[in-house]
Amino acid sequence: MRVDVDMDVCQNYGQCVFAAPEVFDLDDAGDLVYQGEVDDASRTDVEAAVMACPVQAIAIPD
Amino acid sequence: MARIVVVGGSLGGLRVTEGLYAAGWDGEVVVLSAEEHAPYTRPPLSKAALTAAPDLATLAFKQRPEAGRAEWRYGVSAVSCDLDARTLRLSDGTDLSWDGLVAATGVEARRLPEVVGTGGHVVRTYDDCRALQERLTTGTRLVVLGAGFIGSEIAATAVRLGCEVDVVALDDVPMQAPLGREVGAAIQRRHEREGVRFHLGRGIASFTCGTDATRVTLEDGTKVEGDVLVQAIGSAPATSWLAGNDLDLTDGLVCDNDLRIEGRRGVVAVGDVARFPNPLIDDVPRRVEHWQMPMDTARRAAATLLSDLTAAVVDTAPFAPLPSFWSDQYDLRVQSFGSLAVADRAEVLEGDLDDEAVVGYFRGDDLVGALLLGMPRQMVRVRKMVVAALAQRQECPRDRDAPAAGGAA
């Protein structure tokens, strides 16, 4: 499955990192990094990340 | 068909509705929303949404398809409820019976009685935000009553917009209760460098407030004058509609760990009104007005309702969500993990409060929470540290019998 993050909207709140640590992370500068293509096993976690994002920057396009 | 009524149409109401259908509820769900707007995000209302005309389309939550299966009644609130008869009286004069009830009414901004009916503002809803935003232009003199998170965020936003800002509060430093004196004082210095003026530790002797002029006289005779007044003096749980049911309504709705209100089957609370014990911290029921709580409590409350109303098998693990909040003021992000509210002492673990820092919050010798001022690259590590410390306390509590402390140092 695909994961999209609108990096113009993202403000690095990190809520997605806590919801789906296998998909999202903060780099050494505190900026979000993520995998755009993930295993379906992570769907529940990514859906939780979508809901947890304070600025609604995350989407599952399919 | 069996019916669940969700009283409150904000984030908690939305997520519990989605959660009920996602978990297999096949009955009716009716959501009562006092506001006329579909559920929207509130954190920006005291920050970015005040800097330009707030856009409801941007603020509205993306909804899961399940939310559309519910009947949403906008502009309708619950006036009263009979928990034994399982009925609600609504603001449109109709009655509604239910099999399951979700209290998701959240909190309302507190208002000084003297300000009601004058031009004084609050910031809780989209409409509130819009009304204040229109007044925040360069040169506007803004008086902020209250120096908690909302008051501090409004002050920061307004001074950056070119307003003259005076903050009046009873506390000695901003955000004193949640963060403690030392951290509050450090954040006050940042505000003062930006030009915000503080009048703290003193009550108000008298004041007048109109649409275009406000004048506050403090107990020591200090006079603070401005064009616009905003009250940010805290909030109160919206529970009056549940009066008459012999419930303890002193501070929200007292819930068990499964979010049943006073143990009543089929009756749950979510979000800011839910006062529940969190085994990560202790067994004292507390309300937690944090971003993640409506989502966490909604998931658990939906499972509890399904268990009470159907034969569904539910999660029996203790409900133990990690408290966590953030605040943005100027370019500083304040981020907490754990329960600062139960700490009796705060200690700088890394950095410098006037720059960037990690602050540990302790109850006795136990770390119960941590706060980051800036330091974004430490966030994941600090959260792990708090989670590990709380888990260890849970396994071998040192202070199980100790009374709960009143607040941070």
TrEMBL record, chain A:
Transmembrane segments: none
Single GO MF annotation: 3 iron, 4 sulfur cluster binding
Residues spanning the signal sequence: none
Cofactors required: [3Fe-4S] cluster
Keyword annotations from UniProtKB, A to Z: 3Fe-4S, Electron transport, Iron, Iron-sulfur, Metal-binding, Transport
Short name of any one Pfam family annotated for the protein: Fer4_13
Source species, domain of life: Bacteria
Function of the protein: Ferredoxins are iron-sulfur proteins that transfer electrons in a wide variety of metabolic reactions.
Protein name: Ferredoxin
Species the sequence originates in: Nocardioides cavernae
TrEMBL record, chain B:
Keyword Oxidoreductase: yes
Domain Reductase C-terminal: 325-390
Pfam families in UniProt: Pyr_redox_2, Reductase_C
One example GO MF annotation: oxidoreductase activity, acting on NAD(P)H
GO cellular component: cytoplasm
Keywords from the named record: FAD, Flavoprotein, Oxidoreductase
SUPFAM superfamilies per UniProt: FAD/NAD(P)-binding domain, FAD/NAD-linked reductases, dimerisation (C-terminal) domain
Cofactor(s) essential for the protein: FAD
The UniProt record lists the keyword Cell division: no
Residues annotated as domain FAD/NAD(P)-binding: 3-293
Entry-linked InterPro entries: FAD-oxidoreductase/Apoptosis (IPR050446), FAD/NAD-bd_sf (IPR036188), FAD/NAD-binding_dom (IPR023753), FAD/NAD-linked_Rdtase_dimer_sf (IPR016156), Reductase_C (IPR028202)
Transmembrane segments: none
Annotated signal sequence range: none
Protein's name in the database: NADPH-dependent 2,4-dienoyl-CoA reductase/sulfur reductase-like enzyme
